[in-house]
Amino acid sequence: MCRFNRHGAFNVRFGRYARIAYRRDFLAYRPVLAGWTLSSADIADVPLEPDDFVYADPPYDVAFRQYGPAGFAWDDQVRTAERLAVHPGPVVLVNQATPRIAGLYRSLGYEVSELDGPRRIGCTGDRRPAREILAVRNTLA
Q: Which of 23, 57, 95, 102 has the lowest CB atom count within 10 Å?
């Protein structure tokens, strides 16, 4: 997870672990990622080629949406879903299974499935699975 506070500083707690083996050297992944382009930008500014595969995991449609200084409002959810709905290549979009997310994705022609998503983090310590939506377009079945 990557989240930032209002001041732009990294804001994800590390939890209570005796030892965490963080990988600091990613050179072993260089051959695998050589042809990839990873982007961090507003969805409107992400360049897409017609055959690009897109996996999008926008902030969940829940009360807390401050993953960055500007937050992520309902209009941002709509813009993301609409932008990816017109992409001719394969798209996988995930989100919390709320009625309005399901309605939005279905209205734009996504094939929508629900599943239980495991929880590894959370401020309350609740690790029960949460209902998630997996929405796909232009994929081979």
A: 23
